[in-house]
Specification:
About 50% of the residues lie in helices and about 20% in strands. With about 140 residues, the protein is of the alpha+beta class. The protein has a single domain, classed as Pantoate--beta-alanine Ligase, Chain: A,domain 2. The protein has a three-stranded antiparallel β-sheet with strand order 1-2-3, with helices on one face. The chain is rod-shaped, with a radius of gyration of 31 Å. The relative contact order is 0.15.
Length: about 140
């Protein structure tokens, strides 16, 4: 008795398997691409947030420096200029009417970040600095 020959079936099976694999790389790319774009976008927004945190601290230092030698109106003007036109909130303690030479004035700043606005979020970056009030 002769052993059955399956050679003709092996060719058909491998051809059918190869046909099923075609296009799988395109499907995998289509599945991975949105996640990769989202990850890259989050990374860029995180870097932008870090830069805005540094900017908020810089604005706070500038506000405290001006508050040590000038009145609140000058502080708000200097802080707005340092913020580059971005929305800003500045709080000074103590205010100009209660500041005496030798006291410590603290500037607390909230700078609106442009990070994550694409996702519909509003992020405020805090900053705080203190300076000793100088003689006028």
């Amino acid at each position: 008795m002769r052993a059955p020959r399956f050679g003709h079936l092996a060719g058909r099976i491998s051809q059918a398997g190869a046909a099923d694999d075609r296009g799988s790389q395109s499907v995998e790319l289509a599945l991975i691409l949105p996640g990769a774009v989202l990850l890259l976008s989050l990374l860029l927004h995180g870097a932008l947030l870090g830069a805005d945190l540094v900017a908020a601290q810089t604005v706070a230092v500038q506000a405290a420096r001006v508050a040590a030698v000038d009145d609140d109106a000058a502080v708000l003007e200097a802080a707005a200029q340092a913020a580059g036109g971005r929305p800003l909130q500045v709080t000074l303690e103590p205010d100009a009417t209660r500041r005496m030479p030798g006291d410590v004035v603290t500037a607390t700043v909230r700078l609106r970040s442009s990070a994550f606005t694409t996702f519909g979020a509003t992020v405020w970056c805090p900053g705080r600095a203190a300076m000793r009030v100088e003689d006028a």
